[in-house]
Amino acid sequence: MHAILVTMGTDGDVFPYIGLGARLRGRGHRVTLAGPETYQGLAALHGLGFHCLVSQAAADEFLASPDLWHPIKSGLHGARWGARFIRGQYELLTELARDADALLVTNPGILAARLVQERHAKPVATLLLQPGLLPSVYLPPVMPALPLPPWAPRWAGHIYWRMVDAAGDLLVGGELNRVRDSLGLPPVRRIFRWWLSPQLVIGMFPEWYAAPQADWPPQLRLAGFPRFDGGTSTGLPADLVDFCRAAAPPIAFTMGTGMRHGAEFFHAAVEACGILGRRGILLTRHAHQLPTPLPGPVRHVAFAPFRELLPLCAAVVHHGGIGTTAGALAAGTPQLVLPLAWDQPDNAARVRRLGAGSSLGARQRSAARLAEALAELLKPAAQARCRALSARFGDDDAFERAAIWLEELHHRS
């Protein structure tokens, strides 16, 4: 089998594909990653072929806009940016999938993969990293703008999701259907239903995090959380480990690897550490966001694998990305979630329901409010709840489960 793994985004979006690719390669399959240019070296390190799906310049353009993190403007920004790549990505994926044994495993946002499936009868599996992309009238995900209340009657839910579908059709449908027309394919509507492969959808999260709903796609199977931090670490730097263990465990602060507009957050984080009398670790590859100089009890780290760092931390404050959320759950580390856009509000709600942490709204993020919320998470009861949740991970291997399902799809096709 030639598995073609197709995604875009930052670490949280790409690492699960590379982890799955490494597992498939270990099972004897040829694997190619079609992804952002910046991940070519990491793909090669794990023995994966690589083709650039998104150039570094295009990715920088996408990440540079503050609209990316706005609850309403983010969708418009993403649609405008991504629609212009549909045709070129279709041509690339068509060429990559020319092998008779090709199978595509794709992020739902790569609409071109579904075109390849329809036009060339290639098997496609959608890899779904977050449950927030699954519409439901029974337990609706929390959307970043105008969320559907969980108590809303089902008839209202159907109208709500029709409106969401209409917005998707308006933002992306024009360009998508122009490409479809050029390929001799009929137009599609309700893109947020169509973008999931009818053959197989693999949810990379467990049932205890997101219980399946009666109106979820019948082809959806849940593998569990993917635990992969890049696979290149030889352990945390000794000085970072010493810092974590020198006194009471520090608090980690991050807004994700793609955030370039987090100066206000990091300034509040430093102040909150001062209020609490706690040490802090600021995680970002974009150091221009940080206050200078940093006080002695606060360290800056460009990158650290959560699997190794978070067990050494008393709490983590983050944006609600699914990778950070899962990493904190696995480590048993309490979470304070500050959601901005995309699936982040839904992940924040699930963290609260699990008792794994709390969240703050957009207007509640002063240093004083951060310190107040963190003080609750530092209490022994909150720490104990999170340690109990971490036991649910057990020895589950989401990549192994997903690999077996992909092999089964390949054999059926």
Please specify the SSE layout and strand pairing.
Layout: E1 2-6, H1 11-26, E2 30-36, H2 40-45, E3 49-54, H3 56-64, H4 73-83, H5 86-96, E4 102-106, H6 111-120, E5 124-128, H7 154-182, H8 191-194, E6 200-203, E7 220-222, H9 238-245, E8 251-254, H10 263-276, E9 280-283, E10 298-301, H11 306-309, E11 315-318, H12 322-331, E12 335-337, H13 344-354, E13 357-359, H14 367-377, H15 380-390, H16 398-412
Task: From the structure above, extract its key features.
single chain, 413 residues, alpha/beta, seven-stranded parallel sheet, six-stranded parallel sheet, globular
What would you say this structure looks like, in words?
The protein is of the alpha/beta class. The strands form 2 sheets. The chain has a 7-stranded parallel β-sheet, sandwiched between helices. Strands 10-9-8-11-12-13 form a 6-stranded parallel β-sheet, with helices on both faces. α1 packs across α16 (398-412). The protein is globular. It starts with a strand and ends with a helix. It is built from 16 helices and 13 strands. The model has no long low-confidence stretch (mean pLDDT 96). The protein has helices spanning 11-26, 40-45, 56-64, 73-83, 86-96, 111-120, 154-182, 191-194, 238-245, 263-276, 306-309, 322-331, 344-354, 367-377, 380-390, 398-412, and strands at residues 2-6, 30-36, 49-54, 102-106, 124-128, 200-203, 220-222, 251-254, 280-283, 298-301, 315-318, 335-337, 357-359. α6 (111-120) links the parallel β4 (102-106) and β5.
